[in-house]
Each structure stands twice: as structure tokens, then as C-alpha cells.
Amino acid sequence: MLHRDYLLEVIAKFVDAVTVALRGALIDGKIESARDAEDSIAALLDLDPETAMNLSPDSLVTMMLLSGMGDSLASYVSYALDRVGDAYDDMNDTAKAELRWDQAQAVAESFGCDPNAIPEEFAAFEAELAAADEA
């Protein structure tokens, strides 16, 4: 029970931090917000941000496996990486966008997540993005 409560708290903090960062990156087009989202992903995985974000997709999966929490976090990490990829694509940084998308895909495939599924905790943010796209 304690482990579950701890995990839920970690995920809630991650969702809050990533939502703020992705909002800045995807809606406001701020590069520093994309980097903040990457920092949150790395922190969730207990990795140095510079190291984590430069790992190949397979190496990132390996680090998640070694953390022992990969199964619990995979859908959140995959979603966040995919959205960070979208932000870099919007900012015309194709190389970073493709790396983030490849990392997201590798995480989803390795942990059996649907790469197109949106974690429930990000549903309100997705609605906000859709409204911003329509405006």
C-alpha cells in the first residue's frame, strides 16, 4: 500500500510539472519549457537530464528497466516524450523531435503501452491543446 501511495504521488507531481512545461512549449512555443519537460522526465526516471535526453531509445528503455519502476511509468514517459517531440517539431528542430518520438515509441513498445493512448491524467491538457489549436 505504501509503495502504491508513493507511486501515485510521484506520478501526480510529474503530471503537474510536465503539464505546465508542455503548455509553455506547445502553446507558447518556449524552448525552455520543452527543456523543463525533459528535466521532469529525467527526474521521474532518476537520471541526469543531459544524460537521459541524449540516450538512444533502446538505452533509455534499459535505464527504465533498471529503475524497477518502468512498468508503472511507461505510459506517462511515452506520452511526455511524444509531446516534447511535437514541441521540437513545432520549433523546427527536426533532429530532437525525431529522437523524442523514437524514444517515446521504444518505451511504448518495450513496456506494452499503446503509443497513441493518452494517460487519463493528461486528458484536460489534451482538451486545452485542442482548444488552442482551434483558436
Annotate the secondary structure layout:
Layout: H1 2-27, H2 31-44, H3 49-54, H4 57-67, H5 70-90, H6 94-111, H7 123-134
Key attributes of the depicted protein:
135 residues; mainly alpha
Q: How many distinct beta strands?
A: 0
Mean pLDDT: 94
Oligomer: single chain
First and last CA, distance: 44 Å
Structural class: mainly alpha
Largest sheet, in brief, is:
none
Return residue spans where pLDDT drops below 50 for at least 5 consecutive residues. Answer: none
The level of helicity is over 70%
Please provide the ordered H/E string of secondary-structure elements: HHHHHHH
Radius of gyration: 14 Å
Number of helices: 7
Shape: globular
Task: Characterize the structure shown.
It is a single chain. The protein has helices at residues 2-27, 31-44, 49-54, 57-67, 70-90, 94-111, 123-134. Helix content is 80%, strand content 0%. The chain has seven helices and no strands. The chain has 135 residues and is mainly α. The chain starts with a helix and ends with a helix.
